[in-house]
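Reviewer 2 asked us to include a model.

Predict the structure of this chain.
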Amino acid sequence: PDLFPLSQSMSNISQAPPPPPSQMLPPAMALFDPEDNTRRFVGTPDYLAPETINGAGQDEMSDWWSLGCILFEFLYGFPPFNADSSDAVFENILNRRIAWPEESDYPVSDAAKDLINKLIQLDPRQRLGANSEDKFPSGAAEIKAHPWFSDINWDTFMEDEAQFIPNPENPEDT
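Predicted model (structure tokens):
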């Protein structure tokens, strides 16, 4: 599509007229459309929130979803919506099909599982971090108050000595 420069509006009452239809940008589209095999996504689909996949936008609630996915991967060694293709990962995310492993294979605390479950709620308004009851000064404060973080002193956290400092041998080591 032809791009056109955005014009500033003089006020919220008088705004510039819309461009002719031939110059209008296409509507926002979702990342995932099972009927559209022409769309491509570059990046890691495993951490995308459902609202991002559906094209509804992205905000801090999407970040809390991603945090839940990353926490799952840290504890289990693979992402929660793991699949062989991006499309299958998107389907798993949109249907909240989580690849929970056998409990006997992974000694993960109930508090950690609870935190993950609360972070990867399909409805962003129900997600931990939404602070829906306004009990906390921010969504981050709500998350930090979760029992899984009870042993962390957030006031001195940045002064704590790291328990492990990686020593890469090559600049490309991860």
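The chain has five helices and no strands. The longest helix spans residues 60-76. We have added this to the supplementary material.
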